[in-house]
Every structure is written in structure tokens, then in C-alpha cells.
Amino acid sequence: MKIVDEFFGCDVFGPAAMQRYLPHAIYKQMIDVMEHGKELPKEIADTVANAMKDWAMDKGATHYTHWFQPMTGITAEKHDAFINPTGPNSVISDFRGKELIKGEPDASSFPSGGLRATFEARGYTAWDPTSFAFVKEKTLYIPTLFCSYDGSSLDKKTPLLRSIDALDKAAVRLLNLMGYHTKKITITVGPEQEYFLIDENLFKQRLDLMVTGRTLFGAPPVKGQELDDHYFGNIDERVKAYMEEVDQELWKLGVFAKTEHKEVAPCQFELAPVFSSVNSANDQNQITMDVLKRVARHHGFVCLLHEKPFEGVNGSGKHNNWSFSTDSHENLLEPGDDPKDNIRFLTILAAIIKGVDEYQDLLRLSVASAGNDHRLGANEAPPAIISIYLGDELTAILEAIEQGKEYVENTNRKLELGVSALPPISKDSTDRNRTSPFAFTGNKFEFRMLGSSLNISCPNTILNTIVAEELTQFADELENYAPEQRTEHVISMIQKTLKEHKRILFSGNGYSEEWRQEAKKRGLQELKTTADALPHYTDPKNLAMFEKHKVYSANELHARENILLENYYQVVLIEARTMAYMLRKQILPAVFEYEAKLATIIQTKKASGINSPLEEKILFNINEPLEFVSNHLETLENLIDKVPASEKEKAQYAADELLPLMEAIRTLTDSIEQNIPKDFWPLPDYNDLLFKS
Ligand code: ADP
Ligand code: MG
Asked: In what residue span(s) does the GS beta-grasp domain sit (predicted)?
């Protein structure tokens, strides 16, 4: 086997490949374009396109595709061959600059939320040279943005890039006002990805898994996660072979896959990459999800990225580790030993605290989806209430600062509070609180509410923008002071922020009922469902902030809100239809068959003068819930046929009408399952899925 540094990134058109395939002067221009997010000069486009094509064809590629991330959240691609006819029977391989820079997929079926009238259905894709092209399965993938003809974003990536600019601008301005010189900041993200692996043959026997990604029925298995024996356990050979292939594939594609381990639930695993810039982390996470799914089939597995495939065991999330650093690679969320650096750290920390408190609704909605609603607040994932965990020491320091008191360190070393003597903050001062949705983990924040299938651009877009907003407010205020007065004023700004926003800080058990009550008292929002959360997208304060930082226009926000509300409704509706179908076509017939068998036994025994109390009891235990299921099913079928008028009403209908009824049907059906012999039950059960995989 080749060693990793010989092939890492070999399928990526990165600096090494560019250097080999491009004339030196153009190579340097390309690096400049990528590093500074500049536009590609038209006159070099043909040369770059040609070099890219030659490189890709040397890797066996025959096609290229503009790869983009529409509002469906899944990446989209349409493949074109590298050929141009030169006569009736001849072609040459060809790829021009204009084909690289701009594509026009017939994209009329992607959701636009009304941003694009059908008569001008074609959106266009524009190359994003800040993310590397790559070759996969004989195709050159060109990362692109997807817009309508008036330039409105129809995708997830464009707002992310705009938010990077917004945070860059705001942070550079504030830092320079405070006397720190940096020309640019880089936002870094490391998304930890959880997933389930189950046997492909079993998967194919369950319509619910195939269509919706989760089990809509299933009595609990005989063993769940009570023994905590799966977490970090030995990885068996078949899974090990799978993970090895996943790593190889990802490394070839330049993804820094680093850590793989078993997670809490049976058949659950995690893959963590080394962090990279947020733009590339976003694309790489899309690639990772694709590779996880694709490679699974080579090993007879199916990889489930759904947030809650199985009831009763943990679901899957994605921890979004987020930080930003200066152009000299100083991590701005790294508390230093030098008090001078600490004031910078504390200022940024204060801005984040203020942003998270003021825009709780946005952070909540950035992770909202039908799948994730099953996790949040379900004693395995953070609650649907946003709060920040800082660890004991940092909390104590902030309290001291807020009250203008001196801070007494654990070691009893007293530290005067003042500019020249802000306390040193030790790096490992944070312990881990798994129950917090937004936790400071030493040198980064870990946003833990993301669902496993989520495209990470939305939460990062929102995080970047709210922090940009707060840093801008700080900068606006500081500008009124002479440079030598600024440090002192910064301290009072931090104090004021802490006084006004400390309600968002919480270090206790986020899964507990007491916290929900306490959070309510503090006035923190609890937006339980996606239907509750999404309409906040267009709250006036949120509209104003996004427009101010040019991240989303009002039209784009309205469109997004509608697309996501509609999507939520459609996901739930499909689940409801799948449930009804499985009941009518599979489950009810099987139950009737077993009931008939029991009835025959009872009758036969009766004819011989023998009582059958046991059989009668089982028959009763099946038949009683069965009658409810049958009634509920009719109601569900009626509900499925009703279509509320607006997107908002549809989402609320899904949350208030469809889902609770489906939950009731499931509970009843699961209790029937427990009384039916395995041979009669028409589906692989939880024991099969979780232990035969
Ligand atoms: P764990 O949470 O399992 O203890 P780590 O703290 O080492 O693991 O890191 C978790 C994730 O955070 C990894 O993907 C890592 O690359 C990422 N990470 C570490 N430092 C940063 C940073 N400065 N910015 C963004 N992500 C980071
Ligand atoms: Mg983590």
C-alpha cells in the first residue's frame, strides 16, 4: 500500500497540480485569485480551463460537471463530456474558459422560493475558484455557486462566501482599531460527522429506511446502548475495511480525515477531519457524506445519515467546531498567557456572547429540519434552547470582570483587574459538558445542534454574520475614542455586554427539565419544531442584519424561509404516506394472518372442549391496539389528502397534525409487533437491523 503523503490530494486540482500544468506566470495569478478571492481574469480563463482538462483527462476523466449546492441541501451535478465535434465522424477533447467560469444547467426544477419565474427558469452556475476542483469517478468536479439571472442566490454556498467577507471586514476593522494589525482573518471549521452503518440486504427490506432514511416502526431491541459497550469499542473487520477505504478515498480528494471511532448507539460511528477554512470544510463535508454513502455499498452496508434512524437509541449529529484566526495564524479564540492578548480574546468572546444571545432564533433555525427535530431536546442531543457553556474558570473570570472585582485563581494567586493585569487564562481550563448546544472547548466553539445530514453552510453563515454584526457594533463605538483610551473602553464594553447578556451562559445539565424551567425564567427562546423556528428567518431585526452585511437580501430570505418550510412539510408528508402504505400493504395483512391463525387454534381447541386462555389473551392484546391503528390510519389518510394553503400553514400542519398522529400509530403498532411471532412480521426488526449488520 502506498503511504499517505504520496497520494494525499492526488485527485485535487490544487497548488501542486496547478504548478505542473500551468505556465508559471498564470499559476501565480491563480494563487492570487484563490488566496484573495479575486475574480479570474478573462484572458487567462482559457489557459486555466485547458490545464484543468489536461490534468483531469490524465486522471482518466471523460466528463466535467459544475458541482453546486442548491437549496435542497444535497449537491447537484450535471455531466458534460469533454468533446466537441469537428466533423461528421470526429471529435476533439475540448474545454473552454467560458465553460469553466459559467454554466447554465436547465435547473428549473430546483426550488427557488419564487426568486425565479418559470419563464426565466434557467439559473446559472459560476465557478468558485476559492474551492479546489477535483476528479471523482471519471468526472472533473468544478465547485460552483448557483444564482438566478438577477444574481440572487439560489444555493447554500453564496451566502456562506458573503458571510466570510462580512466577518473578515468586521474583525479586521475592530482589531486594527484595537491596535492589532491584521489584513485578513480566516474562519476555520472542523465538522465531526456521525453516521450509522446497516446491512444492505436488511435495508432493502424496509421501505421506510429506503424512502425516508428512518424507521417509522420498530419495537425496541432486546439490547440498546445500556451497557455503554459500543462507544469507542473495537471495530470489527468488515467495518474496519470500510473505514480504510473511506479514508483512502477521502485522502485522495484532499480531505483531512483523521479520527474514526464507534459512537454510543449500536452500528453508529463518527469520522472527524482536521479543521480547514470554512469554505473548504463545507465542500469537504459534502464530499465526505458522499464518500461515506458510496463506499458503504462496496462492503454490503448502507450508510444512514438521517438524524434519527432508530427510536430508543441515540441519533446522529454533526459537531461544528468553529474559530477564526489572523493572517499570522494566531487563533483569536485562543486565550493567551499575555494579558495584552487576553483583552483581544475577551473582546471577541464578548461579541460572541452578545451575538448568540441576540440571535438565538437564527442559530436555532440554522439547524432546523424534520430529521433533527427528533433529536433536539430528546435527552441525547442539546435541547432546542440555545445557551453557551464556557467552563468554570472562564465563567469565574467573566463574573469578576463584570463586577469589577479581583479574580482569584484556583491556585489562590490574586490578580488585580485592569488593563495591564487581566488574568492569564490557562488553555485547558475547559472541562467537557456534553449537554451544551454551544460550548467553548479551549480554543474554539463547538456548535453541537447540527444534524448529521445537514449542509453546514447555513449554521456557519449565521454564526459568521452575527459575530460580524457584534464586532461592527463594538468597532462603531470604539471609533469615538482616541487610540490611547480604547483599551480602557474595551473593558467597559465587555462589562456592559456581560451584564446584559449573561443569561445566555449556562454550565449545568442542558438535558434536565430544571434547565427548561430556568431558561424560561431567563427569557430564553425554546423553538421546539422546525415549523416554530423557520418563520424567524424574516423577523425584522434579522432581515435588517442580513441586509446590512449583504449576506441575504430580503427576497432571498423570504425565498429561503418558504423553501425550507415547504421542504419540512413534504418530508413529513412523505413519511406519512410511507407509513400508511406499509400499514395497508405489509403490516395489517400480516397481523390479520396471525390473528386468523390464533382464531383457528382457539376454535379447534374449543371444538375439542379445551379452553385457550393464553391464545385468547394474545389475540386480545393484538386486537385492541389494532382497532385504534385502523381508525388512526383512516384519519391519517384523510389528513394526507388535505393541503393547507401557505408554506407556514403547511409546516404547522405537519408539526401539529401529522407528526403526533404518526407517533401514536407507531406506538400502537410497536406494541402489536411485540405480540407477533418473528416469522409473521413482514419487516426486519430492530434486533436484525442493529445486531445483524
Ligand atoms: P474532541 O472534540 O473529540 O476532543 P478536538 O478538540 O481535538 O476533538 O477537535 C474536534 C474537532 O475540532 C476536529 O475536527 C478539529 O480539527 C477541530 N478543531 C480544532 N481546532 C480548531 C480550530 N481552531 N478551528 C476549527 N476547528 C478546530
Ligand atoms: Mg466534539
From this structure: 62-151
Q: Reply yes or no on whether the pLDDT at 681 is more than 90.
A: yes
Distance (Å, whole) CA 275 – CA 553: 30
Measured in whole angstroms, how far is the alpha carbon of residue 440 from the centre of its chain? 19
pLDDT at residue 421 in the model? 47
Question: Residue 439: CB within 6 Å of ligand 1?
Answer: no
User: Does 121 have pLDDT greater than 60?
Assistant: no
* Structure confidence at residue 338 (pLDDT): 64
CATH code assigned at 655 = 1.20.120.1560
Q: Tell me how far the alpha carbon of residue 352 lies from the centroid of ligand 2, in angstroms.
A: 19
C-alpha cell recorded at residue 339: 494579558
Identity (one letter) of the amino acid at 355? Answer: G
Cα of 278 from ligand 1 centre, angstroms: 13
Q: Which of 254, 3, 272 is nearest to 143 (CA)?
A: 254
Atom of ligand 1 nearest to the CA of 334: 23
Question: Strand 438-440 and strand 388-389: pairing?
Answer: parallel
Best-predicted range by mean pLDDT (28-37, 128-137, 167-176) = 167-176
Kindly give the number of the ligand 1 atom that is closest to the alpha carbon of 274: 16
Residues 492 and 615 grouped into a single domain:
no
Interatomic CA distance for residues 245 and 81, integer angstroms: 28
Mean pLDDT of 482-497: 93
Are 445 and 583 members of one domain?
no
- CA-272 nearest atom, ligand 1: 14
For atom 11 of ligand 1, the residue with the nearest CA is 190
**What is the distance between the alpha carbons of residues 186 and 673, in angstroms, rounded to a whole number?**
54
Q: How far is the CA of 547 from the centre of ligand 2 (A)?
A: 32
| Per-residue pLDDT at 412 exceeds 50 | no
Mean pLDDT of the residues in the chain: 90
Same domain flag for 191 and 127: no
Domain that holds residue 151: 4-155
Q: pLDDT band for 422, please (50, 70, 90 cuts).
A: low
**Nearest ligand (C-alpha, residue 319):** 2
Give the ranges where 384-482 is alpha helix by DSSP (H): 392-403, 457-478
Would you place residue 409 in the very low, low, confident or very high pLDDT band (cuts 50, 70, 90)? Answer: low
The amino acid occupying position 499 is K
For position 6, what pLDDT does the model report? 83
Alpha carbon of 372 to ligand 2 centroid (Å):
17
Q: Does the beta carbon of 192 lie inside 6 Å of ligand 1?
A: yes
381 alpha carbon – ligand 2 mean position (Å): 12
Report whether residue 273 contacts ligand 1, using a CB cutoff of 6 Å: yes
Query: Relative to the alpha carbon of 447, which ligand is closest?
Result: 2
37, pLDDT greater than 50: yes
What ranges make up the beta strands (E) of 235-325?
A: 257-262, 268-273, 276-277, 301-304, 318-325
Q: How many domains does the chain have?
A: 3
Nearest to 366 by CA among 554, 148, 560: 560
Query: In terms of domains, do 104 and 135 share one?
Result: yes
pLDDT of residue 91: 78
Q: Which has the higher per-residue pLDDT, 263 or 633?
A: 633
Q: Is 443 in the pocket of ligand 1 (CB under 6 A)?
A: yes
Question: Residue 593 has which C-alpha cell?
Answer: 394472518
Do 141 and 248 belong together in one domain?
no
Among residues 106, 129, 155, the one where a domain terminates is 155
Residue nearest to atom 8 of ligand 1 (CA): 272
Flag whether pLDDT at 100 surpasses 60. Answer: yes
Q: Is 188 in the pocket of ligand 1 (CB under 6 A)?
A: yes
Kindly list the protein residues that place their beta carbon closer than 5 angstroms to ligand 2, a single-atom ion.
192, 319
Decide whether any atom of ligand 1 lies within 6 Å of the 277 Cβ.
no
Cα of 317 vs centre of ligand 2, distance in Å, is 10
